[in-house]
Amino acid sequence: MTRERKTFEAIITEADEEQGIVKAIFAVTGNIDQGNDRIKSGAFAKTITERGHKVRVLDNHNTNSVNDAIAKTIALREVGRVELPAKTLEAFPNATGGAEITAQFMLDDDRSAAAFKRIKGGLVTEWSFAYDAFDTSHVEETKDNQKIIVRNIGTIKLYEVSPVIFGMNEATSTTLVKEKDKPKAGRAISARNEARMRSIIDSVQAQLEQLESILPSAQVEQESEPEGASAGTEPQKKETHQHDSEAGPGESPPTDAQPPLVDIDQYLKQTFEEVQ
User: Rounded to 5 degrees, what angle do the CA atoms 54, 114, 18 make?
Assistant: First the structure.
């Protein structure tokens, strides 16, 4: 399973400058996000109970050093819609709740203290979290007058929460971490790229038809070869082929050669890169 990330503009509900404690709502449930995902209410309950004490607060998802752990998770909890700030409800009118973290930064550590000051001062406003998705289902719905495929996420396994400078667009963040070269269901595709992708499909189908035309003929030739054929007959075959290849002026020598097949893997990789 590929670990995923999501980014929201976090709502800081409390910041204690003396103790370096920050409370922030880092995820919203019930709404369809930009990645066409909808986290169901209660999705964080299991992970909070089983591994809430293991969830780390990292600097921009970095895991290169122990110094990347910039705060300690004191508490994690799910909140209901009535606890969501007005700003959150305005941004996500269909929200049913969210997930809140209470983290304590180390004010005697330069890096941790600097991160706390930037969060409290409003220089850093977005938080992102890394997770695995379980109990998922897909449904077709309408968003902004367009048909989309929505992934419902019933259970979240949370690994870490990070304040980030620039939170990636949620849809982009999810494609790069899942499958870099695989467009996500429900993604908007321009008319130009749609035409290009349909051309790819036609080309691949043509290649498959060519392969199918080759394989049966090869099988027939193998089955029709006399069982008693000996090594002595091989020179005669070669001589015959050599004779056939000597075509007269204006004549084309007979040939069973098929048009060259392209490297399908390379072709698909190149064309998909063009439509990203």
Answer: 80
CA distance 273 to 193: 11
Residue range 12-42, pLDDT digits in tens: 777 788 899 999 889 999 999 888 999 999 9
Q: Which two structure tokens, joined as six digits, stand for 250?
A: 């204006």
User: What sign for the dihedral angle of Cα 174, 178, 179, 180?
Assistant: positive
Distance of alpha carbon 39 from alpha carbon 27, whole angstroms: 9
Cβ-based neighbours of 203, under 8 Å, separated by 6 or more: 267
| Sequence-separated (6 or more) residues with CB below 8 Å from residue 120 | 12, 15, 17, 22
Tell me the C-alpha to C-alpha distance, in Å, between residue 171 and each of 60, 180, 254.
18, 12, 55
The answer to whether 68 and 62 are in contact (CB under 8 A) is yes
Q: What's the pLDDT tens digit per position in 201-259? A: 767 777 777 777 776 554 444 555 555 544 444 444 444 444 444 455 555 555 555 55
Query: Which has the closest alpha carbon to 221: 181, 256, 182, 189?
Result: 256
